[in-house]
Amino acid sequence: MILALIPISYLMMPHFQASERNIYDELLEADIAEALSAYSGDGKSEKGAIGFILAADVYVYIGDLDETFATSFAALSPGGLFAFTVERLDDVAESARLLEASPVSEAPVSQEDYDKGWKLRFTGRFAHSRPYIEGLAKKYGFEIVVHENIVPRRDNGVDIQGHLVILQKHSEGPR
Q1: Domain spans in the chain, listed from the N-terminal domain onward
Q2: Report field, pTM of the whole predicted structure over 0.85
Q3: Are 91 and 166 contacting, i.e. CB atoms less than 8 angstroms apart?
Q4: What is the rounded distance in angstroms from the CA atom of residue 114 to the CA atom of residue 21?
Q5: How far apart are CA 151 and CA 88, in angstroms?
Q6: In tens digits, what is the pLDDT along the chain, a chain of 175 residues?
Q7: CATH number of 50-169
């Protein structure tokens, strides 16, 4: 098994390159989709398939996750797992209720944002809705193993609401 790391920012590369632990077999400086396209769950690539993809606090920097789901599905072996966290985009009513109680001055979620499934927040990070994530999972043939509300981190003392998602690749592929 190969342990590969694809840092979300090239600015992180020197930190990982200088690490004395040297736990990674591959350290890739590339766009996530580009790096994943080098692997193939159908055995047609030189690098082979990936058994597990973990992206914790990564997709907050990507709005539209369609390409990410497509390349992750293609790179995973049948039965492979795709685990990630995202910030949570609540529906319009829940967003308004939460904003009333929050010390954060965030613009309310519009119906257009919620229907699209993701929104760029005032923090410069993206939030994604549960229906959007579940729709992409279905589109690409993933089984939802876990989809839970969590607090992936705190920002200036405020809990950031999010989702923990673990998907498993179905062998039959996108629908």
Answers
A1: 50-169
A2: no
A3: no
A4: 42
A5: 9
A6: 566 667 666 666 666 665 656 677 777 777 788 888 887 877 677 677 888 898 888 899 999 999 999 999 999 999 999 999 999 998 767 765 666 666 566 677 788 888 899 999 888 999 999 999 999 999 999 999 999 999 998 888 888 899 999 999 986 666 6
A7: 3.40.50.150
